[in-house]
């Protein structure tokens, strides 16, 4: 079996005397979706920031394709093939869709002072790439802020796929979306997986996770409270474990009439 | 890179490169989407107003005067607008112009060097102050308002203090008889006649700056980064945009503008008053805002800043041609700023709603 695209082993992160994350392990394989589940404050965003290169881990190992590494910054992560799509800051709302699509990796033509954006290529590619993902835009010049939340997520995912990401990290892609929009986004997540990417899906919704996930890591108060492959666990068990097992029993008892 | 994401079958007919639905976007609507539209409407209104109330406003010579007044502000409004699109302010921009003139004049005078040596040293100094502002901003992460307010006060003090210390008075010595003065004056403060209208060379500097800035904003990677950094800094950082370098570059742009303006100031009068420039930073910002720059960043244009500067020029000179008390100028400027901002907000809302 080949080495996982990304592997975290016993990774910890401290902010001063606060343990944000302790002893978390996670594997991401090509063509699979690894879900990270946890309630608010469980350490999901800290985990994301380590994988995305925004923060460095303080203990444990972080390997990319078998080689231990330490990412210096988000650019470094992108260069190593790890693309992160954040829930709220995936795009620049006032900029046109095509400028957003290529932001940070703009193709140019010409040389010297006449080196300029290849606007034609950018417009055409944006249109065709989004069409492949099933988003049919009327006008790639419209500010991306005028798209719906789901469409924006999809643009960000399409962008990561186009730029050759091997690992796609999705931060609560369905959190702010309605049922239908969530379904659309999950379909693109599955599409990215089928394209051979390794996906890290961060969510607090076990139903969404179970729809597409191949393995599940549960976080609780900064520590790992469970790690399961899909065939080891049912949706009910996952939901139960996520909600904190005995706590849920107690809640059921309390609310019973 | 290829991906084999299964596209959902799009509706038939949508594969044509030109979408038939695009026809709905008329030319008018496209214009409505431009950031400078509100300011153009405002400029036309101001022009008509003064054309009616001031008889001498429509003469060719008046036009040259108006353009000159506009260019002096416009040269600085361009980099200030870029900076504002990038989400930051520079309150030191006004006095930096004076600093630039002072450095150039005093360096050449004290070392009895060729004027051009002072001119180049001045460029290095203004760029260095731009870098200082930018690095302070990116390192301390304090608001640019505070950082540049500090630079503004320090420069104001330095301008006065150093000039007094070196020249003994609050103005510099005349450098009109020094080597290189004529050629430098030709570049920064001469007149050209185009189509029977006498134009100060600053008008050409101004137009060139607007053209270059528009090119940078709309057709280069740096321009894309400026919009992104001002619009949503964290999103820009997350996709690998060099946020800090972009900001420092923008402050260096203000330094460059201040250098050109400062050299003009020096070579049109050959002496410089060290207390000048205070308050101008707000006028540059006003020109940029009237021109459609969003004060919170991420939106605006260099052409808009030029229109804003033009409105400023028309108003400041129009009041003179109408033979009113020039004391009223500030009132008009303030009213114009409010009206333009409201108009811009309204236009943008409409443009977004009708898309």
Largest interface: A-B, 48 and 40 residues
- The CATH topology of chain B is given as ABC transporter involved in vitamin B12 uptake, BtuC
Approximate helicity band of chain A: 25-40%
Query: Which CATH C-level class of chain B is it?
Result: Mainly Alpha
- Biggest pleated-sheet summary of chain A: 6 strands, mixed
Number of strands of chain A: 12
Describe the structure in your own words.
Chain A has 257 residues and is an alpha/beta fold. Chain A has one domain: 3-Layer(aba) Sandwich (Rossmann fold), CATH 3.40.50.300. In chain A, 35% of the residues lie in helices and 26% in strands. Chain A contains nine helices and twelve strands. In chain A, the strands form three sheets. A six-stranded mixed sheet of chain A has the order 6-9-10-3-11-12, sandwiched between helices. In chain A, a hairpin with a 2-residue loop joins strand 1 and strand 2. Chain A is globular and about 70 Å long. Chain A starts with 5 loop residues before the first strand and ends with a helix. The model of chain A has no long low-confidence stretch (mean pLDDT 84). With 355 residues, chain B is mainly α. Chain B starts with 26 loop residues before the first helix and ends with a helix. The longest helix of chain B is centred in the C-terminal third of the chain and has 27 residues. Chain B has 14 helices and two strands. The N terminus of chain B is likely disordered. In chain B, strands 1-2 form a two-stranded antiparallel ribbon. Chain B has one domain: ABC transporter involved in vitamin B12 uptake, BtuC (Orthogonal Bundle), CATH 1.10.3470. Chains A and B meet through helix 2, strand 8, helix 4, helix 5 and helix 6 of A and helix 9 and helix 10 of B.
């Amino acid at each position: 079996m080949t080495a996982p695209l990304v592997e975290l082993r016993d990774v910890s992160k401290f902010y001063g005397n606060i343990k944000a994350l302790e002893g978390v392990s996670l594997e991401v394989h090509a063509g699979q979706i690894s879900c990270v589940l946890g309630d608010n404050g469980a350490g999901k965003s800290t985990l994301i920031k380590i994988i995305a290169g925004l923060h460095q881990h303080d203990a444990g190992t972080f390997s990319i394709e078998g080689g231990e590494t330490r990412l210096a910054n988000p650019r470094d992560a992108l260069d190593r093939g790890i693309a992160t799509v954040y829930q709220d800051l995936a795009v620049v709302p006032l900029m046109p869709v095509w400028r957003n699509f290529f932001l940070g990796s703009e193709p140019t033509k010409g040389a010297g002072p006449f080196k300029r954006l290849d606007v034609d290529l950018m417009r055409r590619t944006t249109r065709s790439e989004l069409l492949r993902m099933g988003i049919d835009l009327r006008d790639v010049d419209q500010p991306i802020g005028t798209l719906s939340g789901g469409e924006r997520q999809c643009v960000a995912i399409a962008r990561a796929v186009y730029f050759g990401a091997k690992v796609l990290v999705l931060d609560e892609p369905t959190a702010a979306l309605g049922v239908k929009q969530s379904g659309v986004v999950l379909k693109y997540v599955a599409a990215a997986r089928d394209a051979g990417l390794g996906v890290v899906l961060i969510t607090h919704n076990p139903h969404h996770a179970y729809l597409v996930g191949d393995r599940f890591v549960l976080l609780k108060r900064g520590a790992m409270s469970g790690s399961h492959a899909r065939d080891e666990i049912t949706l009910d068990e996952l939901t139960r474990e996520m909600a904190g097992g005995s706590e849920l029993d107690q809640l059921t008892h309390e609310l019973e009439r | 890179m290829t991906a084999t994401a299964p596209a959902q079958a799009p509706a038939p007919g949508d594969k044509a490169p030109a979408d038939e639905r695009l026809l709905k976007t008329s030319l008018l609507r496209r214009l409505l989407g431009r950031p400078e539209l509100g300011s153009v409407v405002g400029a036309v209104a101001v022009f008509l107003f003064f054309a009616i109330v001031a008889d001498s406003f429509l003469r060719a010579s008046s036009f040259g005067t108006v353009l000159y007044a506009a260019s002096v502000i416009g040269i600085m409004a361009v980099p200030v607008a870029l900076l504002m699109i990038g989400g930051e302010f520079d309150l030191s921009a006004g006095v930096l112009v004076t600093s630039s003139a002072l450095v150039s004049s005093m360096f050449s005078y004290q070392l009895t060097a060729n004027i051009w040596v002072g001119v180049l040293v001045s460029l290095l100094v203004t760029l260095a102050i731009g870098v200082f502002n930018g690095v302070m901003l990116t390192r301390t992460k304090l608001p640019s308002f505070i950082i540049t307010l500090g630079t503004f006060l320090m420069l104001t003090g330095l301008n006065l203090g150093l000039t007094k210390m070196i020249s003994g008075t609050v103005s510099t010595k005349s450098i009109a008889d020094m080597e290189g003065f004529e050629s430098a004056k030709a570049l920064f403060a001469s007149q050209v006649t185009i189509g029977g209208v006498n134009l100060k060379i600053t008008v050409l500097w101004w137009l060139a700056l607007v053209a270059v800035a528009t090119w940078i904003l709309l057709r280069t990677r740096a321009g894309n980064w400026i919009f992104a950094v001002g619009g949503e800094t964290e999103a820009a950082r997350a996709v690998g945009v060099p946020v800090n370098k972009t900001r420092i570059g923008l402050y260096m742009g203000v330094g460059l503008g201040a250098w050109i303006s400062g050299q003009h100031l020096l070579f049109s009068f050959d002496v410089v008053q060290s207390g000048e420039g205070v308050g101008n930073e707000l006028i540059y910002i006003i020109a940029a805002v009237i021109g459609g720059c969003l004060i919170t960043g991420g939106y605006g244009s260099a052409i808009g800043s030029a229109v804003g500067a033009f409105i400023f020029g028309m108003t400041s000179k129009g009041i003179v041609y109408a033979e009113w008390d020039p004391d009223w100028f500030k009132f008009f400027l303030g009213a114009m700023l409010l009206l333009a901002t409201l108009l811009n907000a309204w236009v943008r809302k409409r443009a977004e709603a009708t898309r």
